[in-house]
Design brief:
Elements: H1 7-10, H2 18-28, H3 35-46, E1 50-52, H4 60-71, E2 85-88, H5 93-99, E3 106-111, H6 121-134, E4 138-142, H7 145-149, H8 153-166, E5 171-175, H9 184-197, E6 201-203, H10 215-232, E7 237-239, H11 247-260, H12 278-291
Helix pairs in contact: 2-10, 3-11, 3-12, 6-8, 8-9, 9-10, 10-11
């Protein structure tokens, strides 16, 4: 259980050293990774990806195809891990559940009037309960950015806590939509509010707004997780989403997670990538590392 929390009084003193963050992130990006460690890291990245389809034109067929890919990333190359989860709208959870019935792949569903968050709390709770009742293992909610930016931090805290209760047994990922928060100070404050309100994960973005998962934003959120863990011993997960499309950038993120939070977070129980387009690049790099040859993109399914 999270401790009671008053964001209006407890976090007013927290500020982020933007220059310090930039310098620290730059060091993570200069780390060299040996071939053996690179291959291990690439397979770890693959196992941390949430394949996602969140479009108005989504159909059961498209969701079924994505679920098949989640379980069969590249059948001609045996021994690859599967992805962590698929992420769909609440109306498609039932379809995904049937398609993944014999799989370890989790089912995540967005809720709370994704991506804008502009709806009533009653509708957001109903949205969440429907997804959970349909069989979602995880709920990805969006915070009310308008309320946050207007300084109504207690409203945001209470809403997250209400959605956490509505999740039942499903784990809650709280999307901050950092591209709309403007400053790293705001990112840190929103992270702390989400964590104290009951988030199992904090997540950068919906993927609909740019900039999304910059390393500077992710680092700021990781530090919020670290500070909370140091005080309470409670682990909270992290999910950068949007803009991570290359293996190189994904590996830089893993280095950052390892150095900030430690090895305990290097599993898909505690770290995810929300980047469907990343999967094919990781697959290509794994095959290149193991065989010395690149395969054409024609050998990989289109996301």
């Amino acid at each position: 259980m999270r401790k009671s929390f008053d964001p209006t009084t407890m976090l007013s003193h927290i500020t982020v050293d933007k220059v310090g963050v930039e310098e620290r992130v730059a060091r993570f990006q200069t780390r060299s990774i040996k071939s053996e460690s690179k291959l291990q890291g690439l397979k770890m990245v693959l196992n941390m990806i949430d394949l996602t389809t969140l479009e108005g034109k989504d159909t059961p067929g498209k969701v079924q195809q994505m679920c098949y890919k989640a379980q069969h990333l590249h059948d001609v190359h045996p021994g690859l891990p599967c992805v962590a989860a698929v992420c769909v709208y609440p109306s498609m959870v039932g379809t995904a559940k049937k398609a993944l019935s014999n799989s370890s792949v989790k089912i995540a569903s967005v809720s709370t009037a994704f991506p804008s968050g502009q709806s009533t709390r009653e509708i957001k709770i109903s949205d969440t309960k429907f997804a959970a009742d349909e069989g979602a293992d995880e709920i990805d909610m969006v915070i009310s950015r308008g309320k946050f930016l207007a300084g109504e931090h207690s409203f945001v805290f209470d809403e997250i806590a209400a959605i956490k209760e509505a999740c039942g047994k499903a784990r809650l990922k709280v999307i901050l939509e950092t591209g709309e928060l403007s400053t790293l100070d705001n990112v840190r404050l929103a992270s702390d509010i989400a964590i104290h309100a009951g988030a199992d994960f904090i997540k950068t973005s919906t993927g609909k707004i740019q900039p999304a998962a910059t390393m500077q934003v992710t680092y700021t959120m990781l530090m919020a997780i670290k500070d909370y863990f140091d005080k309470t011993g409670i682990m909270v997960g992290m999910k950068p989403a949007g803009g991570i499309s290359t293996s190189k950038l994904a590996l830089h993120n893993l280095v950052m997670v390892k150095e900030v939070l430690g090895n305990a977070w290097l599993s898909n129980d505690w770290f995810r990538f929300g980047a469907s387009s990343l999967a094919n690049d990781v697959l290509m790099q794994i095959i290149k590392t193991e065989t010395g040859l690149y395969q054409s993109t024609d050998y990989f399914s289109i996301d």
